[in-house]
Design brief:
Strand order of the largest sheet: 1-2
Number of helices: 5
Distance between the termini: 106 Å
Order of helices and strands: HHHEEHH
Largest sheet: 2 strands, antiparallel
Oligomer: single chain
Structural class: mainly alpha
Shape: rod-shaped
Helix content: over 70%
Length: 190
Amino acid sequence: MASASKKNAARPAPTPVKSQLAKTPPASRAPSVSPRGSAKHAETSPPAAATDDFVTAAPLAAVQHSARVTFEKGVTESLAVFAQTKTSAEETVSAFEVGFTAAKDGALAFNAKAFEALRANADANFDFLKAVFAAKTLSDVVTLQSEFGRKRVETTVRQANDLSALARKAMADSVEPITKQVAKSFKIAV
């Protein structure tokens, strides 16, 4: 027992918890809050922590404002480009519709002209056959044949020229609105 009392005598007596709290300054006892919201035990005074929060909040607000302004500018520019593209697309569609309508009208006119030429050629062939059957001599048949051949060549050349002119006109009428729109679109884009 004597050894046990020596051990207790060598050890200092524990101090109460209240006395330790009284000796420490209040700033070190209270946890301060960082800008991210986590509690930290620092030995800084509250005014310094408030200054840190202000320093980090000010640039954050500036960055948010700058991002908002940039985003709004981008949205405005995108809407303007979209409106311009939509208008250009509508004009292009209209030009193609006009071009296709002109092509359809040209094809109908070409077909009517070709059918008219076909009918004229058939009538000329029947007239030639009637004349051959009505001929009395072989020399009349040869004369009719040479005259018919000459007229057929002249008529075929004239019909081919008419059809080619009609085809060129139909092609030009159908392509003209499209080429004008393409030229207009590239002038806008450039």
